[in-house]
Structure formats: C-alpha cells, structure tokens
Design brief:
The complex is a heterotetramer.
Chain B: H1 2-14, H2 16-50, H3 71-80, H4 92-109, E1 118-121, E2 124-127, H5 138-157, H6 161-192, H7 197-205, E3 208-209, E4 213-214, H8 217-220, H9 222-235, H10 247-250, H11 260-285, H12 296-303, H13 309-341, H14 347-378
Antiparallel strand pairs in B: 1-2, 3-4
Chain C: H1 4-25, H2 29-54, H3 58-88
Helix pairs in contact in C: 1-2, 2-3
Chain D: H1 9-32, H2 39-42, H3 62-85, H4 87-114
Helix pairs in contact in D: 3-4
Chain lengths: 189, 379, 101, 121
C-alpha cells in the first residue's frame, strides 16, 4: 500500500460521499460549493493518474469557470431553500435506476473489463503499452502536456476547430436567451 | 547515542525527498506569513510619507524603536484579542469558511514559486521549487482561479446587500482580468517553449540579448509584461481596482461584516497572492532568482573556491533567494505606490478596461508575437 | 491488487450513479444541472483512467472536449434558468407543463 | 542523484499546513477574544441606520453575462496553452489552426459586445 494509492482511494471515496452530500443539500450555494470540492478532488485524482494538464484544466475550467457561472446565477437569483423540494419516485424511475445499477455493475465486473480490454486489443492497443497515437511526434511519458498537445493538434484537429464553433454558438445563444427582455426588466445593478 | 544518530542519518538519507520537500514548504510558508504584516507596516509608512505624515513609528522591540517595526507584531496581537462575533443573519458555516479559503489558497499557491535553482546536500540534488508539476505555472493559475470563491462566499454568507454586491463585483472583476492574464503569458510560453518556471529562468540567463542586455522576458515581450502587471493589480483587488471594497460606495464590500482575525485572514490571503503573482512576474519576465549577467552555474563556480563544493551551492541558493526577494519587493513597492497615487476606477470603467481594451490588446499581442516568433524561428 | 486507473473506473461508476440519482430525484432544474456536472465529471474520470490504462493520450484529449461541451451546456442551461425564473418565478421542473398536450 | 517524490505530495502537505495556520488563527481568535454580543452589534451593518429590505433579492443579469464571456475565453486560453507548448513542433500549421480558432471566438466576442452585454450603467 503506497502513499499515492492510499491517497487516491481516500480522495475517490471522499468524492463519492461528497456527491451524495451534494444531491441532498437544500441551499443551492452549499451544493455548488460541495461540487467545487468534488471537482478539486477529481483534479487531484487526475494528477495521481499522471494526467497533469488534465488536472490543471479541471481546476481552471471546471472549478474556476463553469462553477463560477453556477455560483453567479445562484447568487443573482437568490433562491431561498424553501423553494426546493424532493420529488417522489415514479415506477419509470425505479426501472431506470434498476437498469443503471445493472449496467454499472456489469461494466464494473471482470466481464465488463474483459469486454473493454478485448475491444482495445482488437484496435491494436495492448494494455499498459505506450503508444503515441497515429501521429509522428514522440515525447517522453513525463512530458504529459506535450503529449496531450500533440494528440490534440494532430489526431483531433477537426474536433478542436469544431469546438470553437460550439463555444461561439453557446455564448451567442446564452446571451440571446438571458438578455431577451432586459429592456423591460430594469434590474438593480 | 551513536546508534540513534546513525539511525537519524539513515532516515534522512533514505527519505531525503520528503524531508527536503517539507523544508521547502516550511520556508515558503514562513515567507508568505511574513509578507502580510510587513507589507501592512510598509504601506502605512509609505502612505504617511506620500501624505507628509509620520505614520506608525512608535512601537519598537526591547526598547528600540526601529522605525516602528514592532507595529506588525502589535497589530497581530491586537487582532487576536478582538471580539470574534458572527452576525445574526449570516450563514454560519460559510461565514466561517469564507476567510479561511483565500488564506489557504494564498499559502498553497506560493508553493509553486521557485525559491532558487538547486542545492546539493550529501550528494542529493534538491530542486528549490516546492511544487514542480509538469503543468508548470498553470498550477498558479488554477489556484488563483479558485480565489474567486472566498470573495463570493464572503459576500453571500454575510447576508448583507452591500457585502453581496461587493463580493459579486469583486469576483466578476477577478474573472474578467484572469483572461487577459492568461493571454498575456501565452507568448512567453512559446518563446521559452516550456511551462516550467525553472526552465523559463534558465532560458533567461543562458544568453545575452543584443550582446549586452540580460535575456529577460520583459525585453522579449514588453506588452505582455505591461498587460500582466495591470491584470495582477486587478486580480489581487488592489487599487486602482479595489472598488469591490470601496469605502465610499459599498462601505467595505464583501468585508463589511467581518472583524478581528477573520478580517485579517482575507488580507493574509491577499498579500500572499500579491507575493505569488509578483514572484511569477519576476520569474517569467525578470529572470527570477538569477543575478543579471551572472547565471547560477557561474555563481556556483565563483563561490566554490571560497567555500567547498556543497556549501557553495547553499550560499548561491541563499543569494538567489535574496535576489528574488529584492525583485519581488520592488513590485510590492509598486503596489503600494499605486495605491496612494492613483484614483479608483468606476465599476463600468473597470469592466470596460478589462473587456474592451485589455482583452483585444492581449489577443493582438498574442497574434503579433506568434508571427514574430514564427518568422524568427520557423523560417 | 487493483491499479490506480482500475480503481478510478470504479469510482467513476459510483460517481455516475450518484449523479444519476441526483438528476432523477431532484425536481429543481438547478440541482438537476449540478447533478449533470457530476455525471460529466464521472465520465471525465473514466476517460482519464482509460487513457492511463491504454497508454494513449486519446482519453485526455476527449476529456477536454467533454469539458468544452460541459461549459456550453452550463452556459445555455443557466441562461434558460434565468429566463424561466423571469417568466415563471419558479425553476421547478414539474411547473413547466406548458408544452404538455 | 536526484531526490524525487510524487509531485502532488507537497501540495497535500502545504494544504494541511495552510489549513492549520488559517484554522488555528480563527480558533485562537475565537478563544482569546471577549464575548459581549448585543443586538445592535449582531445586526446588519448599513452605515449605522436600520437595514432597509433584505439582501436576498435578485441582482443584475450582467454578472451572468460577464461569466459567460469568461467561460468562452477561459476554455480558449486552456486550449491555446496546449498549442503554445508545441509551438516549435507544430510550426506554421499550428499558427494557422489557432488563428482560425481564435477568429471564431472573436466573432462570438464581437457579438456579445455589440449586444451591449458589457455596458454597465
């Protein structure tokens, strides 16, 4: 039992428990703050998995940008906790839960993992072997950022360019929706 | 006795990485904790100097006045003994949590700063950067991104409309300038080709620019430097960008319901962040801990005849730390000078400066630098 | 003994389950969106673990795309929440029956 | 020989130490300070006059629009850092790619500006 394995397990269990805490909060602000803690823990787990850039991006983008928007909206609307209530569980939801638990357990067992690894082997990727993708740039495994960048800008070039369109469309859409009737609504600044 | 000493030496030898790491963290923490009280004293003295007053010069130590340097200590003790109350309407948990957040983030962020190149102890080379990730200074950006929440939470949990408005304004300001900050450092990344601060410092000291200037980032990309310093002021909520705490319009912004030690924890975090960002600027633009025209390796070579091989690296590291602190102190002086000479922005002006001027300038700077570096290096 | 990425996959399953429960049991749109963020984070964890398991970078790159999509989802979703709160003064999913036939 | 440990361990140690410092200061102040609460002291502070209304009211949507624009450029910055570390290897190909990427986002930025989303008045 080495230190990184131990801390990985502790962080994972804490993240799962905190997510349980999160979905039962009454105050939206508490839920958002717990979610930020979960994301920070996940960033630490990414770091232990040696995905250094993913860890940094998880905090910068997720905990530092997306959650800021959530917190802003919660604080702007100032939702009091009484407006929140738990809904009842319908039969359809029960079935959904059963199916999702079944799928999750199925994927979590050896059968599911066997499927995962055979799928990968059929693609020609053996487990634990370092393959730098289809491109011609090779960096040592310690240079995580450069490896990610090489994969992003060579293998996933089109996705990268399309993401910019997606973000642009999202921003324009968000402004159109949120700013719609601000002329009639003289909000206090 | 002999045996236990041997066991200690054995333990130190096998766990040198852990012990050295804790030592580095402790050093950085001590520096960070000293910054706030000393800077408060410096600010008060300098404000007095600018406004032709005397300022705090009475409190001394052991009967010596020492220009009032006992003042920070007295302030700390006074703050400890102040009444610590929680307003009735406040959300207790977040009210208590909010000041701890910026303090912790400030103290953790400072660990990403290289305090020196390396020292050699008993054959082990120890890198003097407490936290050295492959993602480099993005670690500092990540920490400064989390800094938004302390302010926003303080405003929200106080349940006071001035505090809420101040907190939201402060966080909106911080996120607005974070973008320009990230974009300002991008050219430096592709000039040096690394995210690692140690690598950047090494790249700045290994050659001379035009044969006589040190190869510092400030000469390679001056616009980035100016942009970064401006965003640094905004990011730390300092004047002329401190209108979140504007006494005249928002009583004291998100700080209004805070007193005693909680109040000072906000300042501990703010000054630690100021130090961290100043040190980041120093490392990226001003050669970090390196003495101009005298790279670290050369310094060690010069010192080796005087001391012996290993102690020479220790002395060089101490000199390097001194140089770093001198450079950072110059920035801190700039912070204080700006605070008492520049008027405060209005909020709409602040947002306008951030989004309409800083951001396009940062983008243009990025494009121009990319083209220049491209033509110089790639053709 | 399980290795880190394998353990991470298990944690990812658990997180996904909890997030799914959040989406199903909370009737408030804001909480549903927060739970969706948990789902996306669980997916990210699975991607990074898969990247480590296979030794390729694909998982980590896909994680960035998931992140960008999550940002867009949050932006649009929250804009809708603001617009809804303006018109209905409520963000309960059960109150939004205008389109029900 | 270089002494190496997991690079994330120092962050954990620093976090625990920082938490001790900040939490310790809070607790010390709680233990050492006097306790003389009175209703006026515990009330909302609005420059001494009785508080008007409540803090739980809706605020301007402009904060939200600022945050949206922030997301747009934050993701852009993260993607651009990936490009910047590989600047030398990607060469002009990378510069053109990134120019297209930035140009698309600038369109969104100009739209938001033209809609007056950032006019604080």
């Amino acid at each position: 039992m080495n230190l990184s394995l131990l801390s990985f397990i502790v962080m994972g269990i804490t993240a799962v428990l905190l997510s349980g805490v999160m979905i039962t909060r009454r105050w939206p602000v508490s839920a958002a703050m717990v979610l930020i803690a979960i994301m920070t823990l996940l960033a630490g787990m990414f770091g232990l998995l040696e995905a250094h850039f993913a860890a940094a991006a998880q905090i910068i983008v997720y905990a530092g940008a997306i959650m800021v928007v959530f917190v802003f909206v919660i604080m702007l609307l100032n939702l009091p906790p009484e407006e929140l209530r738990y809904g009842g569980v319908t039969v359809g939801e029960m079935i959904l839960i059963a199916v999702s638990v079944f799928v999750a357990v199925g994927l979590g067992t050896k059968v599911g993992q066997g499927f995962l690894t055979t799928g990968l082997e059929s693609m020609g990727v053996a487990q634990g072997e370092s393959v730098a993708g289809g491109h011609h740039m090779y960096f040592p495994a310690s240079e995580n950022v450069k490896n990610v960048a090489a994969s992003m800008f060579v293998d996933y070039l089109w996705a990268f360019e399309l993401i910019s369109f997606l973000i642009m469309a999202a921003v324009i859409g968000a402004v159109v929706i949120a700013k719609k009737r601000s002329a009639e609504h003289a909000d206090a600044a | 006795m002999e045996g236990s000493l041997g066991a200690v030496a054995q333990f130190l030898d096998t766990n040198i990485g852990l012990v050295a790491s804790i030592g580095k963290i402790a050093l950085a923490l001590v520096i960070a904790l000293q910054v706030a009280p000393i800077m408060v004293w410096v600010e008060r003295r300098q404000a007095a100097f600018i406004q032709r007053r005397i300022g705090p010069n009475r409190v001394g130590l052991f009967g010596f006045r020492l220009f009032g340097l006992g003042q920070p200590l007295a302030d700390t003790i006074k703050l400890l003994f102040k009444e610590d109350f929680i307003p009735q309407q406040a959300n207790k948990f977040f009210y208590v949590l909010a000041p701890i957040l910026p303090a912790v983030i400030g103290l953790v962020a400072i660990q990403g700063i290289p305090l020196g190149k390396e020292i050699i102890v008993a054959g082990h080379t120890i890198d003097l950067q407490p936290v050295n990730l492959n993602a480099g200074f993005l670690y500092l950006f990540a920490m400064s991104a989390l800094g938004v929440y302390g302010v926003a939470l303080a405003g929200w949990s106080s349940n006071n409309k001035y505090a809420l408005l101040g907190g939201l304004r402060a966080s909106a300001q911080m996120i607005s300038y974070e973008i320009a900050m990230g974009l300002a450092l991008l050219p430096m990344v592709f000039i040096y080709g690394t995210l690692d601060l140690q690598g950047m410092i090494a790249a700045q000291s290994d050659s001379l620019l035009f044969g006589f200037l040190p190869n510092w980032g400030i000469f390679l990309s001056p616009i980035s430097f100016v942009l970064f310093v401006v965003t640094m002021f905004a990011e730390t909520n300092r004047l002329p960008f401190d209108l979140a705490e504007g006494e005249a319009e928002l009583v004291a912004g998100f700080l209004v319901e805070y007193g005693s030690m909680r109040w000072s924890l906000f300042f501990l975090g703010e000054y630690a962040m100021m130090f961290t960002l100043s040190a980041l600027t120093t490392c990226v633009f001003l050669g970090g801990y390196e003495i101009p025209w005298l790279p670290h390796a050369q310094l060690v070579t010069l010192l080796t005849p005087i001391f012996t091989a290993e102690p020479a690296t220790w002395v060089a590291a101490a000199i390097g730390l001194g140089v770093l602190i001198v450079k950072v102190a110059a920035f801190m002086f700039l912070f204080v000078q700006a605070r008492f000479t520049l008027p405060r922005f209005r909020y709409d002006q602040l947002m306008r400066v951030g989004w309409v001027y800083m951001l396009p300038v940062a983008l243009l700077n990025l494009v121009v630098m990319a083209l220049i570096v491209g033509f110089l290096r790639l053709t | 003994m399980l290795t880190l990425p394998e353990l991470g996959l298990y944690f990812s399953f658990l997180l996904f389950l909890v997030g799914l429960a959040g989406v199903m049991f909370r009737k408030n749109i804001l909480f549903m969106m927060l739970s969706v963020e948990i789902l996306l984070n669980a997916a990210n964890l699975a991607f990074v673990c898969a990247s480590k398991l296979t030794g390729t970078m694909d998982g980590q790159v896909v994680m960035f795309f998931v992140m960008a999509v999550a940002a867009c989802e949050a932006a649009i979703g929250l804009a809708l929440i603001i617009a809804l709160y303006r018109t209905k003064a409520s963000i309960e999913a059960d109150d939004l029956k205008a389109l029900r036939g | 020989m270089t002494a190496s440990i997991n690079p994330y361990l120092p962050i954990l140690v620093a976090f625990v130490l920082a938490l001790l410092v900040a939490g310790g200061a809070t607790i010390a102040s709680f233990l050492l300070g006097p306790k003389k609460p009175n209703p006026a002291k515990l009330d909302v502070y609005e420059c001494g006059v009785p508080a008007v209304g409540t803090a739980r009211q809706r605020l301007s949507v402009k904060f939200y629009l600022t945050a949206i624009l922030f997301i747009l450029f934050d993701i852009e910055t993260v993607f651009l850092y990936l490009w910047a570390v590989l600047f030398g290897q990607l060469k002009w190909f990378g510069i053109i790619e990134v120019a297209l990427f930035v140009a698309t986002l600038v369109v969104g930025y100009i739209y938001v500006l033209r809609r007056g989303a950032l006019n604080w008045d």
